[in-house]
Design brief:
By secondary structure, this protein is mainly alpha-helical. The protein is built from 15 helices and no strands. Helix 11 packs antiparallel against helix 12. Keywords: Membrane, Transmembrane, Transmembrane helix.
């Protein structure tokens, strides 16, 4: 089934590019501009520097005083707290990337890594304030309300997973046998001398993979805009949950009622969209399941939409 869907999707995009080269070029340019101007400068330095900290074992020393706070509020270890902080600050898909790296480096268990992907993979504050609030919603909604909608829903989602799904989880209590015993070939270098080189290579490998997904999903968004046969409202809903950057821009220009645009945009950002899920799957270690992240993002979208209905009037 996966092969059939992949083949059908590939053929659809090829037909779109051949029949509508101008629209395809515009969509591809939009995706690559996003990757070059936003994703690389925002994420690549953090990926490289975090890799160095992981290899040198400095994270635990820096954040050890905050260990009781992380365990009480989030139910995670010191390394999980680092994933939470960087995931919230750097945005999609940094949280999932760090959780995967920590698991691969034997810093956290598989259970904790999957738990972290349910609430640490979010839009960055700069994306919420600048792109969503200022560009798409034209500063008509206070940034504080947008943050409240998105982070309150994420907190509720975290509590649901912590109390119902991972209620027996204790940081560091999972045996070492639950952890991955193999590392990437590029990460098997000595911890000191080659830590920077390994981190740089891994960083560029990750950022290039993410760029490929952004390119393909931007073209898919252009294809949906042109071919979607149903109502305009359903088209904008689908676009918003396909690739959020392109989708939010199209929702803002849709002419739909402003309150509906606000609610739909907030829900789309809460979900991350299909492109973010594909990116997350590509950077997660093979031992880590996507299902917890997928479930949390669906729940997050619903919760964000409900909270937005109450707050964004």
């Amino acid at each position: 089934m996966k092969r059939i869907l992949l083949t059908a999707g590939t053929l659809l995009l090829l037909v779109f590019l051949l029949l509508h080269p101008q629209e395809g070029l515009a969509a591809a340019r939009t995706g690559m501009t996003l990757w070059l101007n936003s994703l690389i400068p925002a994420l690549l330095p953090f990926i490289i520097l975090t890799g160095v900290l992981i290899h040198t074992g400095s994270i635990e020393k820096i954040l050890l005083p905050f260990r009781p706070l992380f365990e009480f509020l989030l139910g995670v270890s010191v390394y999980g707290g680092y994933v939470f902080l960087l995931g919230m600050l750097c945005g999609y898909p940094m949280g999932a990337k760090l959780a995967s790296d920590m698991y691969e480096s034997h810093k956290i268990s598989r259970r904790e890594a999957e738990y972290l992907t349910t609430f640490c993979n979010n839009a960055s504050p700069s994306f919420i304030i600048t792109y969503l609030g200022q560009i798409c919603l034209l500063n008509k909604v206070p940034a504080s309300r947008l943050f409240l909608c998105l982070f309150l829903s994420d907190f509720i989602c975290m509590m649901i997973f912590r109390l119902l799904i991972y209620r027996n989880h204790l940081p560091g209590s999972v045996p070492h046998t639950d952890r991955h015993d193999e590392k990437k070939e590029t990460s098997s270098a000595p911890l000191s001398g080659n830590a920077l080189d390994v981190s740089i290579m891994n960083g560029f490998e990750t950022i290039t993979r993410l760029g490929g997904y952004i390119l393909l999903f931007s073209i898919l968004a252009g294809c949906i805009s042109l071919y979607w046969p149903f109502s305009p409202v359903s088209r904008y809903v689908l676009l918003g949950f396909t690739e959020i950057t392109t989708g939010l821009s199209l929702i803002a220009d849709s002419g739909l009622p402003f309150r509906f645009c606000c609610i739909l945009s907030a829900a789309a950002v809460g979900s991350g969209g299909a492109c973010i899920l594909a990116q997350t799957r590509s950077i997660l270690h093979k031992d880590l399941r996507l299902l917890p992240c997928l479930t949390s993002k669906c729940l997050n979208a619903v919760l964000t939409g409900m909270i937005a209905c109450l707050l964004l009037r």
